[in-house]
C-alpha cells in the first residue's frame, strides 16, 4: 500500500510541476515528504511553534503557530481548527490558512470567520467555556492547515504543557516550545519521557525552550502503554499564580496542596444544626468510625445526585456543603466536600482528593506540583488501610472505587498540605467471576439450565449495573452475553447486589431449543456453555511496544451436565496451560452414567511484559479460545 | 408515496374517553401519588409522567400588532428509582435572530417528598436555572429540580412566547418513560389553516371544535379644536373564530428503540401541525402548501433553486471540453456524473436550496446537496440529456404524510435515457453510482419536478436485492486444518456500502479485519478489486488456513460445511416488536463451497437439503449439499427481498433467522476408513 501512495504522490508531482515552479511558498508543499514522516501517518505536524510569555502572576500570553499536513481523513483530528476560551481569556488573533499539495494558498479564515459555540457538555447543567472554530471541508488530500492564534489569559495556574506527540496517527517534522518568564516569579518545569527522544533544550534564568525534529509515527498497538507514559511532555508551573482571580502559591505538593486547601476547600463545609443533628442520630449506635462513615456515605447516596455546574472559579471550588444539603445535587467537588463536611461533623477525618479518573489508569505527577486531575474523590485514613469514596455515584458500595479511580497516584489535600497517595489496586484474586450451572441435555437437541454467577472486584463493577435496568434490557443483555446460543429463551432472571460484601449474584433459568447438533446417531455440543474466551488479539509482525495488562482476574466455572439416557461420551483430555501471564485449565469428568462435570479456571495476571512477550500472550489467549469451543460427541448406545 | 407510509400509518382515531379522578392542578399532588412505589403498567419504569398539559395557542400581541405563538407546559413527574432522576433535568431550546427572539417565562417548579407522612415542598429557585447561548441563533434554558428522592414527585410549568408563528413544533405524545395522563391542545385563529398528521403505532384520540375569540384594538388620536388639544381613544373589536384541537390520552407506554429501525422517530407517537394557508381579513389567501404539486412548484420558483438550475456560464467551458465529440447520452451522463463527483465534496449539509450558490460552490469545490446536485442536473440538461431535479426528504427526518413546504430537505437528479431507462444520481456521494444512492436518500421519500414545474412521487428503494457472492475452494488435512481460497463479490448496494465502510482503509487493515471476523489463522495474498470501478462489483480474495473449524474426536471429524461463513448470531433478540424492520434494501448472500476431504476418510453424515420461505415472497433460504469424488459441494442462498418488514411479521423474520442459524450449524461427520 505504501508503494501505491508513493506512486500517486509522484503522479501529482509530475502534473503539478509547472505550477510548483511558479510558486513562492515552498514551505507547505506536501508532495516531497520524507518517508520517515509519511510511514503509517495520517498527518504530519510540519512545524509547531508555541511561544508563551508570562508577563506577571496574572497575565500570560500564548502565541501558537501550527502547520499540519493532513494526508487522509483520519488525519483531520490533528489539524487544530478551534480555540477555547472563557470570560477570563481574550483571543487577540485567530487565523487558519489552507495550502494545497504544492504549497499554494487556497483559503484563509480570519477571526471574524470563526463561529462561536458553547462547549456543549451533555451532562453539564451550566458552564461558561466556549470555543471559536471553523469548518473546513477538504476537497483533496494532502493539504496543509496552518493554525495561528494569540491569546491572553489572566489565569496562570495552568500553563500549557509541551506535548509534541498527541496521538498514534501523526509524525512530527518539527515542534518548538518556548516559554519566557518576565514575571519575576520563579518558574518550575518537569521533563517527562524525554529519554527516547532527541530533544534540544535551551534554558536561561528567564527562558526555557525545547525543539524536537523528525519523529516518526508511533503506531497504536493493543495492550500497549498510554502515550502519556511514553511520549515526551514538558510541564511548567509558576510558584505563585492566579486561578480565575484567586491567587495561589505552590512549590511542591505540600505547599500546593496547602494552598488548595486554604483557598478552595476550607470554610465551605458549614452545615445546619438540623442536618448535623440528623446525622448524629444516624450514626449514634454505630460502633466504629468506619461504620459511621458507611452510614454517612449511604445517606449521601440516597440524598444526592450528580449534576455538573462549572462557572468561573466554580470549576475548581466546591459548592457550599449547605447548598448541596438543600438542593440534593452537585458535581464531584460538591458531593465530595459535602460528604467530608458530614464526616467532619462526627469527628471523622477525611480528605478531599484530586485524581485522574478513567478506566485507563493515569497518575497525578508525583514529582511535579501543578494544577492536575479531572475528578475528586474522598479519602478516609483508616487504621489498616485507606478508605476511598466515590461520591458521585448513587449505587457504588462503600469503599469501592472500581476501575474508575483504582491503582493510581492521587493528590490528598490536607489542612497541613498536599500528599501523594496511591489508591487501591484490585489483585486478580479479588476480581473474580464464578459461574456455576446445572444443565440438562435432551435428545430433542434442546438444553435447559440454571446458571448462577458471582462476581467481585473489577468484574463486579462491570456487572452490577445490570440490576438497575428494565427487564427487557436485561434480557437483551444476557442474549448478547451468550450470543452464541441460538434461540435462547430466558425463563427468569434474579439479580442481587450485595453491597455489604461487594458481591453481585446473577441467577438465570434459560433454555435453548437447538443448542445440540445432531449428526446421525451422534449428538454434538460444546460443554463450555457459559464462559467462552472472546478476545481476538491482532498479530503484529513487528511489535514495537511492551505488553501492558492493566488488570488481572480469575474466572472459575463448574457445570453439572445431565446427558440423555442411552448415550455414551468419550471424554477429552484435561487441558492445562501455564504462562507468565496466567494459567488456564479445562476438564470434563464423568460423575456417573448420565452426569458430567465441566470445570474451567482462567487466571490472568496484570503486569508489564517485554514486547517480545506479546506474541506468546496472544497465542495463550488463542489456545484458550480453541479449547473453549471444542465439542464433545454423545453416541447413542446400540 | 411509496410503501413506507402504507406500513407505518396504522393509526386509528378513537373518540376520547377521559378518566378523571386525580386532581391535576398545580400543587395538588396527592399522598397516593407520593406513596406509589412502581408504575402499575410497567414495573421497570424508573420514572413516569403522571400528568402533562401542553397548550399551544395564538395570542394577539398589541405592541407588535401580530400574533405570537404561546406554548404553555405543565408537567407532573414521578420518580420511582434513582435511574429516573435524569428526567428531572430539562433543556428548552429557544430560537433567536437579530430582530426577534423566543421568550421563556414563568418557570415555576416544586419537588414534593414524603417525610414521616408529611409532604415537604422544595421550590425550584434561580440557582437551579441557567441560560446558555449555544450559538448565534440558539439559546438554551436548562433547569434541574431540587431535593430529589426515590418516590418524590416534581411539578413544573413554564411558557414560551414565540414570534415565529409559522413553525409549530411537533407535539410529542410519547416519551422514553410512560405517561399516565396527557392533555395536549392546539388552538389557532381562523386566519391560519393547518394540516395535521399523526405518527406512531398508538391510537390517538383527536377532538376538534371551535370557539369565538376577540381582539380589541385601541387606537389613539389627537384633535385640536380652538387651540384645545384632546386625545381620543377609540376601541375596535374584531371577532373571529378559533379552531381548537385537543388530544387526551392515558397510559401511554414508554418508547423503545429496536435494531433495524430506520428512523425510529417516525414510530414515536406525535401529532404535527403544518401551516397550509393564511387568510387574513381583507387580504387574499396565501397558500403555503396545499398539494405536493404546489410545494414542488413553490420550491422551483425560489431563486435559490430554479434560477440556480438555469445558470450555465460557470461550467460551460469545462463541460464542453469534457464532452467534446461525445453524442451518446448514456456516456455523457456517466462522464458528467463522474466529473461532478470528483470535483465536488459535499459539506454534509442537507438542503433543498443553494446557500452560497452553484457558482461559488463550483469554485470552492464544496457545496451542500442542492448546490452539488442542481449543478449536476443543470450540466446534464446543458448537455442535452433529459435531466430533472428530484426533491427528497431524507431518512433522518420525520416522514411527511401531507404536503408541506418543509417536506423536502435534499435534492438529487433523475435522467431519462433514450432507451426509456431511468437513472437516479446523487453526486454528493463519492461512492455513488447511477441508481445506487446513499442510505439517507433511499430510506426517505422523493418527488421529481419536470421542467414545466409539474411533479410526481417516486420510489427510490431498489426493487431487487443486492447480492454478495461467496466462493470457497478448500481442502481439509489429517490434522483438521482447512486450507483454501476465498473469493467474494459484493454487488450493487452491498458494493456501495462496502466502499463506504472500507474505501479509505489500507489493504493490511482490510486483511486484519477479515482475519478477525472469520478467525482465520493464516491469511495471505489479500487483494481487493474494483474499489474504484463504479458500476461493477467489488471483489475480495485471499488464501487462508484455519485451524479451528474442524473438530477431531477420536477417529471422526466434525465441521459445519459453511466453515467461517456460517451465521452465528440472530440480531433479532426482542420477544416482540411494535414497528417495522427496515433493512434499507433487500439483500442476498449466496455461498458456493467446495471442500475436499482428507485421504482415508469418508463422509458418514451430512446435512440434508432444506428450503424455507418467508410469506409474501419477503425472503427465502435454500441449502443444498452434495458429495462427489471426495468433494463436498454446498450451495446456500439467504435472501431477503423486502426492504421493509411489517411489525406483525416480526415473529416470522425472527424465526427465519433462528432456523437459518440452526441449519447452517449442522455438521458433516467424516470417519477414518
UniProtKB/TrEMBL annotation, chain A:
One Pfam match, by short name? Answer: DUF3857
Transmembrane residue ranges? none
| Signal sequence coordinates | 1-22
Q: Which InterPro entries match?
A: DUF3857
List the keywords (alphabetical): Signal
- Which intervals hold domain DUF3857? 59-217
The keyword Signal is assigned to this record: yes
Q: Which domain of life is it from?
A: Bacteria
Please report the name of this protein according to its UniProt entry. Answer: DUF3857 domain-containing protein
TrEMBL record, chain B:
Question: What superkingdom heads the lineage?
Answer: Bacteria
Protein's recorded name: DUF3857 domain-containing protein
User: Which species expresses this protein natively?
Assistant: Aquimarina addita
Q: What is the lineage of its organism?
A: Bacteria, Pseudomonadati, Bacteroidota, Flavobacteriia, Flavobacteriales
